[in-house]
């Protein structure tokens, strides 16, 4: 279970990317985070595995606090978090198999990593996972020979090979055509269900979020302004997330959910102010 | 009277500065020329001297070829060993001298210092230094080649490291890999073409460099060449020059081929 409380990030430039966002991801649910560009979606995801250093708040994965970790402890924590990137971030000049097996780098010695000497079980599993993502037979292709959709599937295979406790997915479809986007989303949700892994996914396309997510979280200017099921995401909520519109008085259940979410955000930013003073 | 619109590329101030810069260049060249006190008497005799040299050199001493095979091979060995040593030492220096991999400001400056120190001294001076320390022979030559090449190789490798896609390194780190593994998987494959290109190009340069370091006793064909010149054995000199030409062309072909192969 991932439990994020009052996460804040202020960049050295003074930009407040996150102003105290709290979120829980449990079981095998798929949580989609939507919001306009610059809302802090990527920052949020990257603060979870500390590719970006949060300025305040807490991130707990299965009871382990991640924000204070360093060195070996941080690396061990990262092994449990699979990450999938917008630009795939594959090692372009290495083979598909090397890319997939790099998911196990947290478990092999540096010398064995250098010699590409991986555990037999891991290799066996890498073949299975490749078959699962539909890339069997491509293990010896270089990553830069593949199409965008295929590359993202290698990225997914790499993350799964970690046997993660959670998958962080950062704009997985932004570089893909609609067809490949759908295939990648199908694959992600399918794997999350089969392997019982929760998924936290940043996504631009609201229709994909509605179709695939169990829960949707809306960020705007570093604050959580919406949280609810895809059915709750009506025009009012969209207006609030994308255009910063006020919630009309006496709105339906959605407005209530949104208002609550807004309150949570408000409370946490108050806490943030108390902490700063 | 028509009121034309005027346009000038430069302001009067800019124009004045340009004239001054041009004037300064001419003055500098003129001063250098006057102060050198070149003796022009020799220009008159140059064609005769040149024909004389050609006559003494031609034909090349074919019988001498057998004797230069072994120093020629030594020359190539010095180039290979010196380049290998240089590339191996360049990797840590490049990691220090690249802004995105250096641990801190001090290590960055250290990297930059090694790079410029190695590059600012000519190979023949390095050879002199190492001949004094290790005595004459191939060891001094190899070290001179290696030390001179470190700066060149590290600088180009460091530039290539600075241009890598950081996303790939990030992805490897996100799996829980340590920083050495992140370098092996995230950085090395990205700079590999540069690594191959730079080492073969430098080897090519080093083949040429190792033909002259023999003049100060640092081994290779240069020793033979120096001796032949001192004995006025001009036909041997021509043989050596032709042999060097063959080797240099050969090394250029090899390095061009390898650089094309690396992708």
Concise overview:
The complex is a heterodimer of chains A (277) and B (263). Chain A has 277 residues and is of the alpha/beta class.
Account of the protein in words:
The complex is a heterodimer of chains A (277) and B (263). Chain A is built from ten helices and ten strands. Chain A has 277 residues and is an alpha/beta fold. Chain A has a domain at 1-80 and 166-172 and 198-277: P-loop containing nucleotide triphosphate hydrolases (Rossmann fold), CATH 3.40.50. In chain A, strands 6-7-8-3-9-10 form a six-stranded mixed sheet, with helices on both faces. In chain A, α5 (120-132) packs antiparallel against α6 (148-161) and α6 runs parallel beside α7. The radius of gyration of chain A is 19 Å and the shape is globular. Helix content of chain B is 78%, strand content 0%. The longest helix of chain B is centred in the first third of the chain and has 33 residues, at 65-97. Chain B has helices at residues 12-36, 41-57, 65-97, 105-120, 123-134, 138-162, 166-174, 179-209, 221-230, 234-261. The radius of gyration of chain B is 26 Å and the shape is flat. The chains are: A alpha/beta (277), B mainly alpha (263). Chains A and B meet through α2 and α4 of A and α7 and α8 of B.
């Amino acid at each position: 279970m991932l439990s994020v409380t009052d996460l804040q990030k202020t960049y050295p430039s003074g930009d407040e990317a996150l102003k105290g966002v709290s979120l829980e991801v449990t079981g095998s649910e798929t949580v989609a985070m939507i919001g306009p560009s610059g809302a802090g979606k990527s920052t949020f995801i990257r603060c979870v595995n500390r590719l970006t250093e949060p300025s305040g708040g807490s991130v707990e994965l299965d009871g382990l606090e991640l924000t204070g970790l360093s060195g070996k402890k941080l690396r061990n924590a990262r092994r449990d978090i699979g990450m999938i990137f917008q630009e795939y971030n594959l090692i372009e000049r290495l083979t598909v198999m090397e890319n997939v097996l790099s998911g196990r780098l947290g478990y092999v010695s540096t010398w064995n990593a250098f010699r590409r000497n991986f555990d037999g079980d891991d290799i066996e599993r890498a073949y299975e996972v490749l078959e699962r993502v539909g890339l069997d037979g491509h293990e010896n292709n270089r990553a830069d020979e593949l199409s965008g959709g295929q590359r993202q599937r290698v990225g997914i295979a790499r993350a799964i090979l970690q046997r993660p406790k959670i998958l962080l997915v950062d704009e997985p479809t932004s570089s893909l055509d609609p067809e490949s986007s759908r295939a990648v989303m199908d694959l992600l949700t399918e794997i999350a269900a089969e392997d019982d892994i929760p998924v936290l996914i940043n996504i631009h396309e609201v229709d994909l979020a509605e179709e695939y997510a169990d829960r949707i979280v809306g960020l705007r200017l570093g604050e959580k302004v919406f949280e609810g099921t895809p059915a709750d995401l009506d025009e009012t909520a969209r207006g609030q997330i994308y255009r910063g519109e006020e919630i009309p008085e006496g709105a339906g259940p959605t407005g209530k959910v949104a208002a609550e979410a807004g309150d949570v955000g408000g409370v946490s930013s108050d806490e943030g102010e108390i902490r700063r003073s | 009277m028509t009121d034309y619109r005027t346009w000038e590329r430069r302001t009067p101030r800019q124009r004045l500065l340009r004239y001054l810069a041009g004037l300064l260049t001419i003055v500098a060249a003129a001063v250098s020329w006057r102060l050198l006190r070149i003796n022009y008497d020799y220009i008159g005799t140059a064609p005769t001297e040149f024909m004389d040299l050609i006559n003494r050199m031609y034909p090349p001493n074919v019988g001498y070829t057998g004797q230069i095979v072994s120093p020629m091979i030594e020359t190539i060995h010095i180039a290979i060993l010196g380049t290998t040593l240089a590339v191996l030492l360049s990797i840590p220096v490049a990691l220090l001298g690249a802004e995105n991999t250096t641990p801190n400001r001090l290590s960055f400056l250290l990297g930059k210092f090694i790079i410029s120190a190695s590059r600012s001294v000519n190979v023949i001076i390095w050879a002199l230094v190492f001949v004094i320390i290790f005595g004459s022979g191939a060891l001094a030559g190899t070290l001179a080649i290696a030390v001179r090449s470190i700066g060149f190789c590290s600088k180009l490798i460091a530039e290539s490291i600075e241009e890598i896609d950081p996303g790939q390194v990030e992805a490897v780190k996100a799996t829980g890999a340590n920083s050495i593994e992140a370098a092996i998987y995230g950085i090395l494959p990205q700079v590999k073409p540069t690594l191959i290109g730079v080492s073969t190009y430098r080897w090519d340069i080093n083949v040429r460099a190792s033909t002259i370091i023999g003049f100060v006793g640092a081994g290779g064909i240069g020793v033979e060449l120096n001796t032949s010149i001192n004995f006025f054995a001009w036909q041997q000199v021509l043989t050596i020059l032709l042999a060097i030409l063959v080797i240099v062309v050969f090394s250029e072909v090899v390095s061009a081929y390898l650089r094309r192969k690396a992708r």
